[in-house]
Amino acid sequence: MVKESTRLSAQDWARAALKAIADGGLAAVAVEPLARTLGVTKGSFYAHYRNRDELIAAALAEWVRSHGDEGLAEFAAIADPARRLRELLTVVVQAVQPLAPSVHLSLLGDRNDPRVSDAVRRVNRARLELLTRTYHELGLPEGRAASRARVAYAAILGLLHLAQTDPDAPHSAVLADEATAIFLPS
């Protein structure tokens, strides 16, 4: 909870909206409940946004920023493609927590909304481009690198999906080791 005296930024609201999206999709983004969660009045919201749609657009933009090209920049900067892939797989798979809400998976329920489909497309594209480039740098021909990237990404999304309903999933470190063993060419 944020105290009323704390000045919230537009980004604070967008991040709170992302948490709501992770928990319940776009329908969960509502000003009054978010204000209660943040410990502020609705006036704080209206200091940054005119309406809920603006907040949703800002939240989706924040998600694209933090999970697309900009969020992947640290990994993209790793020169050694084997190290890049190992670190990327380890970080991503270890972030998968049993029963934890997921913005990505929740957005799929709203995939017919053009704002959502655009955001998901942009994040998917950034992730697939990085994986494809990495596999190509590891020696796979371009077409095979793209196919391997899709399979690896699908497996990661599948782990995320399974974690939504499986409290008994193996520890994420074990899964990260397996993902590396499977998806890092020898």
UniProtKB/TrEMBL annotation:
InterPro entries: Homeodomain-like_sf, HTH_TetR
Swiss-Prot/TrEMBL keywords: DNA-binding, Transcription, Transcription regulation
Keyword Transcription applies: yes
PROSITE patterns to which the protein is assigned, alphabetical: HTH_TETR_2
DNA-binding region location: 30-49
Residue ranges of every copy of the HTH tetR-type domain listed in the record: 7-67
Name of this protein: TetR/AcrR family transcriptional regulator
Species name: Nonomuraea insulae
